[in-house]
Amino acid sequence: MIKLFRALPKTEEARIIGKQVLRSSTSVAANYRAVCRARSKAEFIAKIGIVVEEADETVYWLETIIEAHILDNEISKLLLKEANEILAIMASSQLTAKNNRQ
Fold first, then answer.
1. Structural domain tally of the chain?
2. Is the pLDDT of residue 102 over 90?
3. CATH assignment of the domain containing 71
């Protein structure tokens, strides 16, 4: 995602949206790291919820970058596909954790 950010054109809209996608995507990784260190099921569920929110936001910003033709290339489409896969995995983990919290 850092390389994607660096590859964006130097326009105002690309700069603003680029910062958003960079922030949300790096937040996914940082918060997932916190999930792995959760001290309880409740903390795990709360923290994985943040990961799901940030992954969904990352998908949104990547879609915006592609749909606005800010960067509409194979790499951006592959990153979008991967972001959707991460979102699906994290959302599934969140649902499983909620269902197994007893």
1. 1
2. no
3. 1.20.1440.60
